[in-house]
């Protein structure tokens, strides 16, 4: 009876483990969907969406299929055309306007807002139409021209054309008083290459300590003082006052536009840097074999640690990285793997034990049946015949 009860409990346990495994993944999947802002209910449900594409491109340069690249000269007017397509499922209106580009704080080309001053490609570009209304699936070609000033620096310049959907999307109207409106923008780049000796030059401008909400960072000042786009990569080393290297961090930046400067944020992972003086050594390679060697000193104050870690600044253990952290400091995707793997092992062990006990129980039951059967149908042993029967047989004979 105990074995039967225990095996039934294990059977329930195995099924419960499997159910828990599936339920946990379902819950975590919903959490991931919510955290990333995905929603199956928000799939294209009667909305207009707009795309931009060059009408003509250079077959020898595949990049020109995605955005415009003009090799030109100062004082020249470049004329071209862009195809605007409504890829959505409803009629919609779109606003078209040119903008300048710059380098984002974390590197990479970003495009300025419509109201920001335009001094480069955005100021040179004139569109043949500023607003269109297109039915679902409809396209229209818009002409534009880029008027390059007669006096302008050589090298690469970057701007773009923005297609702004005039139908703003907003957050669901719940009981919350806060409502977020989202602009849907599509941007196509315009790169203008002007003649002249290309200058590849990167400069370091300082290192500052910073951070908040438990994340410690170093802000590395960088400036592209050359005339072409760069993609630097290398290392940042931090040494204490004794010359002991306490951090070595690999860096890989995206596109860095010429004549722009940023304070590039570098996350400090593992043991945080405490209050004190430090020396930073930055080594970055870029362009055609160019290398930046930059060394500077910086200081971390107790006030900065309080700003980063709060009043409990005695805890100098920084989080494992920037954003996307889950339970135990693991990113959400790693947490899914760990939890899922653990539950899968639990389900497998429970199923195996249950199966073995079920087989064992079946063998025991079979043995009991055979034992009972042998006792009920046992053949008489004539060699143990009672002595009274033998005496009677002698007398009869």
How do you describe this structure in short?
The chain is of the alpha+beta class and 397 residues long. The chain has helices at residues 2-36, 121-124, 302-309, 332-376, 387-396; strands spanning 50-54, 68-71, 77-86, 92-103, 109-111, 125-127, 131-134, 139-147, 155-165, 169-170, 181-182, 185-194, 202-212, 215-224, 233-239, 245-252, 260-267, 276-286, 290-300.
Classify the fold: give the CATH topology of the largest domain: Immunoglobulin-like
Please estimate the helix content.
25-40%
What separation lies between the terminal Cα atoms?
Answer: 57 Å
Strand content is: 35-45%
Main sheet overview: 6 strands, mixed
Name the shape in a single word. Answer: extended
* CATH class label of the largest domain: Mainly Beta
Number of DSSP strands? 19
Q: Show unreliable segments.
A: 1-10, 25-44, 316-330, 369-397
Please state the CA-atom Rg, rounded to the nearest Å: 37 Å
Quickly count the helices: 5
The overall pLDDT, averaged over residues, is: 79
Count of domains:
3
The CATH architecture assignment of the largest domain turns out to be: Sandwich
Q: Structural class from helices and strands?
A: alpha+beta
């Amino acid at each position: 009876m105990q074995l039967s009860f225990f095996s039934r409990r294990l059977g329930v346990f195995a099924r419960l483990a499997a159910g828990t495994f599936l339920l946990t993944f379902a819950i975590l999947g919903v959490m991931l969907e919510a955290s990333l802002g995905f929603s199956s209910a928000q799939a294209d449900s009667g909305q207009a969406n707009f795309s931009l594409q060059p009408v003509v491109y250079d077959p020898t340069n595949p990049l020109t299929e995605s955005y415009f690249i003009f090799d030109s000269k100062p004082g020249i007017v470049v004329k071209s055309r862009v195809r605007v397509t409504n890829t959505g499922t409803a009629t919609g209106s779109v606003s078209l306007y040119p903008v300048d580009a710059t380098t984002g704080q974390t590197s990479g080309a970003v495009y300025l807002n419509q109201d920001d001053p335009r001094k480069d490609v955005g100021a040179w570009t004139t569109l043949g139409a500023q607003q269109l209304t297109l039915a679902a699936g409809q396209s229209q070609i818009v002409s534009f021209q880029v008027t390059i000033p007669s006096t302008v620096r050589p090298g690469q310049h970057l701007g773009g054309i923005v297609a702004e959907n005039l139908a703003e999307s907003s957050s669901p109207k719940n009981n919350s008083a806060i409502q977020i409106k989202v602009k849907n923008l599509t941007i196509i780049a315009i790169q203008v290459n002007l003649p002249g000796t290309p200058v590849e030059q990167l400069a370091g401008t300082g290192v500052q300590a910073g951070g908040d909400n438990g994340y410690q960072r170093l802000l590395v000042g960088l400036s592209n003082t050359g005339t072409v786009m760069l993609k630097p990569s290398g290392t940042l080393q931090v040494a204490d006052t004794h010359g002991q290297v306490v951090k070595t961090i690999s860096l890989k930046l995206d596109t860095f536009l010429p004549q722009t400067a940023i304070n590039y944020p570098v996350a400090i992972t593992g043991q945080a840097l405490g209050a004190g003086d430090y020396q930073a050594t930055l080594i970055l390679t870029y362009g055609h074999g160019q290398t930046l060697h930059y060394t500077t000193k910086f200081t971390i104050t107790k006030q900065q640690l309080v700003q980063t870690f709060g009043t409990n600044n005695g805890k100098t253990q920084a989080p494992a990285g920037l954003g996307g952290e889950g339970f135990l400091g693991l990113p959400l995707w790693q947490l899914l793997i760990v939890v899922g793997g653990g539950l899968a092992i639990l389900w497998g062990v429970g199923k195996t034990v249950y199966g073995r006990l079920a087989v064992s129980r079946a063998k025991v039951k079979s043995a009991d049946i055979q034992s009972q059967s042998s006792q009920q149908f046992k053949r008489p042993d004539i060699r143990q015949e009672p002595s009274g029967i033998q005496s009677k047989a002698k007398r009869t004979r």
